[in-house]
Task: inverse folding
């Protein structure tokens, strides 16, 4: 039982990242009709927003320590972060320690801007082009973006640790009557799940309970009619692209402490996220979220020793297996609109 | 119209002249066929450095390339000479190789076997490279080694740790300076026994490809010989980025040691995940839980950050060694590039010098002469202590380092501390050892 609960937790955790990326993807597809293969790159850029803020906070001045030597035998250069000099060692260290959560504030405007520039500068020119053209241009853009990040940050992963207060693990098992050590789970993974639920809730609330959201939903249902009413739906859709970029970016910011960011991380999630969108139903927001968590949980269970012993390799194909079954039996996806992908 | 009569004598004369004319280039071709692939004919010789310049190991590849460039400088008599001053063989004089200036071309392996073969092929066929050096993957090493054997050039492997490179996939034209998985197990075992005891239960997470399998096999064999029990060996897909599903069950498995047979991004992420799950803070079977990463590299250690503190592993070489060869190399590299070299950089630097030295001693660039010069060559002064290039399998034998993640690093570079320098005798094995069985070294191929 404890093993099952552990894998459910793992699945929810994996599913959180899938759901957040897929949510943005399907939002863009639902509003603009664009298949955005650069969405994984937006997730990666978000993670590097946290890396950048961490580096900014660690900007240091150098003093020479004559009592110690470096690897060449020269006096050791000791680096002291400016924030520690300005605010004192303790406050400065705390600010640096909390750089990942603080990066949320840093990333939101950057990701909105990146999304806006991407949509206005490139993607809008491909609205009327076939999906294959959109895929090619956005995939090319993803490669360009990741090479730019690699140029500035290198190919090695860069640690963005969580704050000390939120690092380590917690014994969830003892809270629900299991033996000690039965269900140990990292705190930051629980934080990530909670964060994902909050972001998903915020996006749905925004679309459901604001006038802006109402217009966007109307535009998704019938773009032409909304346009005929004199509403500039294109502008709103551009903003939605920015919001989708911000959602992917925030997913990346918070993902950094789970696995150190590297320039390639967007590609690692891209295909999986597309499968999530297809399984959930192209353009369906609840479908993306449901499929994200569902596939995350299935992937976790498929990685157990029992599963891999019973069906070798199942951990590598489970998501695609589900996608094949869904496409064969229900092409529109779990919660897709009738007619979509069914022609 | 002139009527020219055709005579028998005329036909014979013309035939003789034409035959001589046609035979002339054939004679030259025959002459070159009798020599070897890409025999240098001008005043320079070209070496091919095949390293990952893009992809996940690009940083490691860049470090290798920096070291190779440094080696070329030293061979051509530029810079401070580096290990030419400490190398036990004095054949190299800093005037190139056999009097020819050393030039180089580079290729990008992308850490993909097909791409690595294509770039090596291009350097051999288009650029006239007489030797290929570098790389950061066993899959790539085996693929390029096979190509070099067919093409008739020497392959001086870079970072490749799988037993198979000098085991079942060994080739006469290929040489490995780097240590291997068996040696990691042999070096680590006594330290593991001393630090963790003989009654441990190990859980292995293993990258699901050739290198991972051979390392798991080696570590399982050496730890079980200590009396350890292997609780489980779980293969993880190479493309995995998150290992939480694999690590979550470890604590409840009855294991008290986690062995991560991972490298590169896999290692960074699996170790980070293991620390997140608090494994190192736990007690299992009445003992402190431990993690072992059998193959370390400085760049991976930097990627893993604070997570490696206290975690044991092994290395081919480390810049903190205090022998004269290491000091000379670290000084040259550090002054030129502002950082200490990684162990993959050191292996590529040493391989380049070893190749050049073998050419000098053999008096030729002919691969068969080089093979003969390198086989059973004993040397010192390149940073690894007394070293032997065994003729039977073209594997270098030297001391192996057991290292630990530094608890209190003073700068960005001393992330690892040397725990023990395991003597060469302790990591030697028979060429027919079952882990290296199968495959034949074969005959050297001069190509052409």
Result:
């Amino acid at each position: 039982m404890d093993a099952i609960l552990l894998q459910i937790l793992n699945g929810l955790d994996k599913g959180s990242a899938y759901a957040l990326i897929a949510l943005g993807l399907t939002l863009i597809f639902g509003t603009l009709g664009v298949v955005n293969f650069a969405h994984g790159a937006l997730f990666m850029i978000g993670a590097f927003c946290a890396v950048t803020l961490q580096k900014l906070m660690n900007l240091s001045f150098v003093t020479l320590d004559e009592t110690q030597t470096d690897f060449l035998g020269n006096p050791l250069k000791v680096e002291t972060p400016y924030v520690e000099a300005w605010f004192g060692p303790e406050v400065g260290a705390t600010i640096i320690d909390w750089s990942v959560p603080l990066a949320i504030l840093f990333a939101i405007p950057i990701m909105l801007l990146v999304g806006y520039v991407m949509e206005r500068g490139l993607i809008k020119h491909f609205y009327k082009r076939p999906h294959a053209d959109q895929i090619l241009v956005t995939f090319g853009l993803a490669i360009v973006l990741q090479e730019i990040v690699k140029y500035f940050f290198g190919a090695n992963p860069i640690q963005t640790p969580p704050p000390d207060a939120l690092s380590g693990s917690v014994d969830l098992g003892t809270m629900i009557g299991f033996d000690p050590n039965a269900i140990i789970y990292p705190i930051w993974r629980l934080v990530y799940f909670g964060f994902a639920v909050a972001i998903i809730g915020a996006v749905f609330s925004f679309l459901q309970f604001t006038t802006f959201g109402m217009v966007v939903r109307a535009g998704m249902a019938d773009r032409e009619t909304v346009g005929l009413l004199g509403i500039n739906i294109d502008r709103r859709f551009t903003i939605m692209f920015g919001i989708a970029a911000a959602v992917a970016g925030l997913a990346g910011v918070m993902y950094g402490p789970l696995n150190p960011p590297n320039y390639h991380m967007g590609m690692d999630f891209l295909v999986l996220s597309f499968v999530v969108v297809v399984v959930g139903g192209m353009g369906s927001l609840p479908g993306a979220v449901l499929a994200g968590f569902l596939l995350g949980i299935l992937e976790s269970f498929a990685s157990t020793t029992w599963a891999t012993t019973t069906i070798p390799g199942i951990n590598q194909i489970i998501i695609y297996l589900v996608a094949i079954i869904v496409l064969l039996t229900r092409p529109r996806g779990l919660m897709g609109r009738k007619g979509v992908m069914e022609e | 119209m002139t009527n020219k009569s055709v005579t028998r004598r005329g036909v014979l004369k013309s035939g003789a002249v034409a035959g001589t004319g046609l035979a002339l280039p054939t004679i030259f071709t025959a002459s070159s066929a009798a020599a070897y692939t890409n025999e240098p004919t001008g005043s320079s010789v070209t070496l091919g450095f095949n390293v990952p310049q893009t992809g996940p190991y690009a940083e490691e590849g860049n470090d290798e390339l920096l070291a190779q460039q440094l080696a070329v400088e030293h061979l051509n008599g530029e810079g401070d000479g580096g290990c030419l001053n400490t190398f036990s063989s004095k054949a190299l004089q800093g005037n190139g190789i056999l009097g020819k200036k050393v030039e180089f071309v580079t290729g990008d392996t992308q850490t993909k076997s097909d791409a690595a073969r294509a770039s090596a092929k291009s350097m051999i066929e288009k650029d006239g490279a007489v030797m290929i050096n570098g790389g950061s993957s066993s899959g790539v090493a085996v693929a390029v080694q096979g190509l070099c054997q067919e093409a008739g050039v020497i392959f001086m492997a870079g970072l490749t740790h799988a037993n198979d490179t000098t085991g079942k996939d060994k080739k006469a034209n290929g040489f490995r300076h780097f240590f291997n998985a068996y040696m990691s197990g042999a070096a680590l075992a006594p330290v593991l026994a001393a630090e963790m005891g003989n009654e441990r239960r190990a859980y292995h997470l293993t990258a699901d490809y050739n290198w991972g399998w051979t390392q798991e096999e080696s570590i399982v064999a050496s730890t079980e010989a200590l009396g350890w029990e292997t609780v489980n060996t779980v293969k993880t897909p190479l493309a995995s980025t998150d290992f939480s599903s694999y690590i979550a069950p470890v604590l409840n498995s009855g294991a008290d040691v986690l062995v991560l047979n991972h490298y590169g991004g896999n290692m960074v992420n699996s170790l980070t995940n293991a620390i997140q799950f608090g494994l190192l803070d736990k007690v299992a079977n009445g003992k402190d839980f431990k993690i072992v990463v059998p193959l370390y590299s400085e760049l991976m250690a930097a990627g893993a950050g604070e997570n490696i503190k206290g975690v044991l592993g092994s290395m081919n070489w480390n810049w903190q060694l205090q022998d004269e060869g290491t000091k000379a190399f670290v000084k040259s590299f550090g002054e030129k590039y502002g950082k200490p070299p990684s162990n993959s950089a050191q292996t590529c630097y040493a391989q380049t010098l070893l190749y050049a030295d073998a050419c000098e001693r053999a008096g030729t660039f002919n691969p068969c002469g080089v093979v003969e010069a390198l086989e059973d060559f004993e040397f010192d002064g390149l940073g690894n202590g007394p070293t032997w290039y065994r003729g039977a399998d073209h594997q270098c034998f030297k001391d192996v380092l057991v290292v630990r993640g530094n608890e209190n690093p003073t700068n960005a570079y001393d992330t690892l501390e040397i725990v023990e320098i395991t003597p060469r005798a302790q990591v030697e094995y028979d060429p027919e050892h079952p882990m290296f069985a199968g495959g034949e070294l074969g005959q050297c191929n001069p190509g052409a």
Q: What stands out?
A: The two ends of chain B are 50 Å apart (CA to CA). Chain B has two domains: 44-179+319-393, 182-315. Residues 1-6, 14-34 of chain B have pLDDT under 50 and may be disordered. Residues 44-179+319-393 of chain B form a domain with the Rossmann fold fold (CATH 3.40.50.2300).
